[in-house]
Amino acid sequence: MSNVSQNTTPEDSPNLAFVATNAASSGIKLDKKKLKAMSRRSDRPGLIYLAQWFGFLIVTGAMIPLAITYTPETWVLGSLIWANPVLWVAMFIYGIFLSVPSYSMSHETAHGTAFKTRWLNETVLWFTSLIYVEEPLHRRYTHTNHHTYTWFVGKDSQMPFDTPMDFKGWLLEITGLGLAQFHLHALLRLTVGNFSPMMREVFPEAELPKLTRNARIFVLIYAALAGLVIMGQIWPLLFFVIPRIIGAPVMLLFTLIQHVELQENSPSIVQSTRSFTTSWLGRFLYMDMNNHVEHHLYPQVPYYALPDLHRAIKDQLPENDPGFWRTNLQVLSVVFRRSLGRNTKAASIRQAPHMITDGSYERVAGKTM
To answer: pTM here?
Structure first.
């Protein structure tokens, strides 16, 4: 496969004809009839997923009032959240099921592949983006850009961390502080119609008023929830704010390993993107996006067909990296050793050659999120 110098962007190489990063740019082949069959959309899988997701939310959400019910009577309401470890565990478990699927479903509906019925797709995009705290059209157009310029320095609008990543960057990413800062800053800019150069480049001009309208509605809803808390209603904290915050790190462990330690500025998705194995629960929470190389190669394929897509092209792809937890632990080991100036060779996960050093390293790209 062809390769682009790791420190080169399309603008730096005027003789290089840039093509969108996908299967064609990666040299991956798939029979057109098979691709057409896999790309067929349906409402049924998405509706089943929503029913299962709501079921998980009801079951895990019920743990929260149960934790309060069995709180010792000597604990007053004002100190309840801070003093009850059982309640924190309940909110964390519920928060995982709130945070990860809201990310996954907002991602799939941003692609327009979660449902065949357009109004259903757009409605679910709107509400899951509200949970994810990103205006839905901002979600859609920045992600479209990410697919077009996957991991291209200066072009990909969804590079969430500096590369190579160090331990400080890992902490900023996994705690959710970096993402929260980006989302809130973007939301406020959209609310007042102050569009950044990146926004004007990525968003169609005709969509700008819709972005502002949606952002203002989002802000009003969040302000209403804050107002309820100020008036003494504790349920927005218990069922949205705190679970969304403490559940986010699990979501970010999924998203971190999509591209970390891989090749910038390559037309090959195989070089810039990672697939990994995970459990049935991980596949549910992440909507089969652990098949992430496959998704970037053929983004028109719905999430529920990604396992079939993987089987169809697996002979052309590297082996999946070894498990959600194992992959994340190896990434943590690498970034920690990088911060200490030690060797950064991972035990088994894929890395771009320039990510492996014995000491000092040069920054290749700054985050765009």
So the answer is: 0.91
